[in-house]
Design goal:
The strands form three sheets. The protein has a six-stranded parallel sheet with strand order 5-4-1-9-10-11, sandwiched between helices. Strand 2 and strand 3 form a beta hairpin. The protein is built from nine helices and eleven strands. Helix 5 packs parallel to helix 9 and helix 7 packs across helix 8. It starts with a strand and ends with a helix. It is α/β, with parallel strands linked by helices. The protein folds into two domains: 135 residues, Rossmann fold, CATH 3.40.50; 81 residues, SIR2/SIRT2 'Small Domain' (2-Layer Sandwich), CATH 3.30.1600.10. Helices cover 34% and strands 21% of the residues. Bound molecules: nicotinamide-adenine-dinucleotide. The site of nicotinamide-adenine-dinucleotide (NAD) has 28 residues, from helix 1. The site of nicotinamide-adenine-dinucleotide has 28 residues, from helix 1.
Length: 229
């Protein structure tokens, strides 16, 4: 059985990484338009770099929770039949042991050159960083997809949705497209669809089944069900 799991900010909430929809559209006290758009970066690069620098630095203080760990266990059991597509820019899936992870909104621990498009593994601050180590010319920005930009790896994601037998969404509000539309795409191509979320989401009506609760409780239970066949 081929499974695609879409994860959102809710899967990392129990690790201590805040979601933003749950705080009135604020992300760590900032309006999303202030820190997550290309226009914001053009107008005030310093504030935007400092915001992501703080998010990157805070990764050191958090770790994967039972939901991340259960998905890594599932990968160990079924290998290539599992793909995790995450909207998260943290690295908690990888730190739990998952290797088949697609970061459709980019990664905090990566820097992108605005000039040559080169990507560099980045664990330090980007504010006041030297120019791109690749071309020596461009300014480095966080390698994250802002509102108004095109998500990464969409072709590979659509291919996996078309081919999967089961699509599971974990901890995502169903409000941010195109990810919010994946359930309908998977379902149109014949997949069964399951939502695991703290509360009913905007996307709940589109799923065959919707379970409410904490990801750290629901995901391990669901993984045990899959492994029990
Ligand atoms: P969101 O913040 O819009 O929604 C999170 C969803 O998770 C909500 O429906 C909420 O009810 C649910 N939730 C909260 N705690 C939960 C828990 N313990 N268990 C299960 N569900 C829980 O998140 P989104 O839909 O992923 O969209 C937000 C965008 O913001 C993403 O695209 C992402 O790029 C970015 N973001 C990323 C992170 C991160 O990397 N961890 C954190 C905040 C925002």
């Amino acid at each position: 059985m081929r499974i695609v799991v879409l994860t959102g900010a809710g899967i990392s909430a129990e690790s201590g990484v805040p979601t933003f929809r749950d705080a009135d559209g604020l992300w760590e006290g900032h309006r999303v338009e202030e820190v997550a758009t290309p226009e914001a970066f053009a107008a005030d690069p310093h504030t935007v770099q400092r915001f992501y620098d703080a998010r990157r630095a805070s990764l050191a203080a958090v770790g994967p929770n039972a939901a991340h760990v259960a998905l890594a266990e599932l990968e160990r059991a079924i290998g290539d039949d599992l793909l995790v597509v995450t909207q998260n820019i943290d690295d908690l899936h990888e730190r739990a042991g998952s290797t088949r992870v697609v970061h459709m909104h980019g990664e905090l621990r990566s820097a992108l050159c605005s000039y040559c498009g080169g990507r560099h593994r980045w664990d330090d601050d980007l504010v006041d960083a030297d120019p791109c180590p690749g071309c020596g010319l461009g300014t480095l920005r966080p390698d994250v997809v802002w509102f108004g930009e095109v998500p990464y790896h969409l072709d590979a994601i659509i291919e996996s949705l078309v081919a999967c037998d089961l699509f599971v969404s974990v901890g995502t509000s169903g409000a941010v497209y195109p990810a919010a539309g994946f359930v309908q795409q998977a379902r149109a191509f014949g997949a069964r669809t399951l939502e695991l979320n703290l509360v009913p989401s905007e996307g709940s009506p589109f799923f065959h089944e919707s379970r409410q609760g904490r990801a750290g409780d629901l995901v391990p239970v669901w993984v045990r069900e899959v492994l029990a066949g």
